[in-house]
Amino acid sequence: MLDPQLLRNDLQATADQLLIKGYALNVEKYSELEKRRKTLQVATEELQAERNSRSKNIGKVKSQGGDVDALLAEVAQFGDKLKAAQRELDEVQSELNELIEAIPNVPHASVPKGTSEDDNEEVSRWGEPSTLEFEAKDHVDLGEAIGGLDFAVATKITASRFVVMKGGLARMHRALTQFMLDTHGQDHGYQEVYVPYMANRHSLFGTGQLPKFAEDQFKTSLAADDPNQKEEQDQHGLYMIPTAEVTITNIVRDVILEQGELPLKMVAHTPCFRREAGSYGRDTRGMIRQHQFEKVELVQVVPAGDSYDALEQLTGHAEKILQLLNLPYRKVTLCGGDLGFAAAKTYDLEVWLPGQNTYREISSCSNFEAFQARRMLARVRNDKNKTDLVHTINGSGLAVGRTLVAVIENYQNGDGSITIPEVLRGYMGGLTLIE
RNA sequence: GGAGAGGUGGCAGAGCGGCUGAAUGCACUGGUCUUGAAAACCAGCAAGGGUGAAUAGCCCUUCGUGGGUUCAAAUCCCACCCUCUCCGCCA
């Protein structure tokens, strides 16, 4: 959520910046609503003040044994007037809130202009895409041949976009998770946390998934199939997390931190659940886009001034995993048009996939500045004993399913076997090959 | 699942229609005292929002959440959420 003060004082400039993100803010509508809000709020609060002082006076007179009939008659009409004013204010305020809550974050000055992923800016490359002496297969062919990936049985059990892993690949998937958690926990200074895989609507609102992206989430229903309970369900149903960002970041929701507690650096491994509602035709083959996948997530909570350093640092931590696995990748800065709703700046890490002969996203590291903090009321006490909003940064370190795909495709051998990366062998009882 | 108790400021804990944004204690901050520290004493100490140039002043809101009664609600009524205790069940 943007600072309402910013919208009031710098509306046009903010609208211009949002254009970089491809978001057209309705300036007229906003100003009009804001004007009404101001008038109504001032008027309503004046009425409240008036009512309060009169009511207090009645109490005073009464306690002194005076006659309050006249005073009561005088104040009698206030109730209705106040209620009407309040109702009108509520209407305008909720309309205004709806508008503000739907406005995306403003991109940072360093974000390149552009409308699609074609305009993303490459920052760096690491490693050389391998030149195989045979024709590269993709992970589906390799995995199915080994008997380690079974999409058909997953579809039978559940639905499309799920997978069953078996044997060495299932084990390597687990090894990757352990390796990532250990590296971030021991070498990069993150506190390992275990978090719920379901979250309430307040948490999803806090990190920005709600209300705008409800159709991307899986939601549970608590009450029975009773139409009378519909509203109940909407209020209290829980969401399967689309990313651990939701549950980790919301640890600091409604919290005032002390300066000494920052920076907070946390890492968690969780499954993630996504409806993928908007991508019916895309990546239907293989493990690239699933309804359920594992991810190791990094989150930092820092003072406002430190967040861009933290973004660089956190991105470096994710890169380190790719480097240790010896997987070629490139780092890109997302352009304005490709930037997510809540992010001010995002680096994507794209790993080389020989089977697709291209780089594919495997990590996304973003600085949200105060956008999430404002929604969550996550604050830190400053030197003047006042509260400042914190900044939040997060990134995948890494998406485990896609990392498995990358390992399968980059470590494939001519006979269809997969060499196990050295750093994983300790997690796999010393095995060197899956065949 | 059954029975009961309860949700008040950073914590503990009073208040059960008006002068209560909220007693008291602890914690914290500043001061006096002291060579220094402790103790003692004095003072301060919630958040969100509006107005505003203002981190000034004034005003509004908030005692789990939402609604209701009332001129007036932390206090009364209703619904929901959450926590705890006992019994049952259970990885």
Features:
single chain; 435 residues; alpha+beta; Helix Hairpins; BirA Bifunctional Protein, domain 2; 2 domains; eight-stranded mixed sheet; three-stranded mixed sheet; 15 helices; 19% strand; RNA-binding
The CATH topology of the largest domain, please? BirA Bifunctional Protein, domain 2
Computed Rg: 27 Å
Uncertain parts: none
CATH superfamily of the largest domain: Bira Bifunctional Protein, Domain 2
In the CATH classification, which architecture of the largest domain applies? 2-Layer Sandwich
First-residue to last-residue Cα separation: 50 Å
- Classification by helices and strands: alpha+beta
CATH class identity of the largest domain = Alpha Beta
Q: Find the count of extended strands (DSSP E, 2+ residues).
A: 17
Q: Give the rounded overall mean pLDDT.
A: 91
Tally of alpha and pi helices: 15
Global geometry: elongated
What percentage of residues falls in helices of 4 or more residues? 40-55%
Strand content is 15-25%
Strand order within the widest sheet?
1-10-11-12-15-9-8-4
The description of the largest β-sheet is: 8 strands, mixed
What multimeric state do the chains show? single chain
Total domain modules = 2
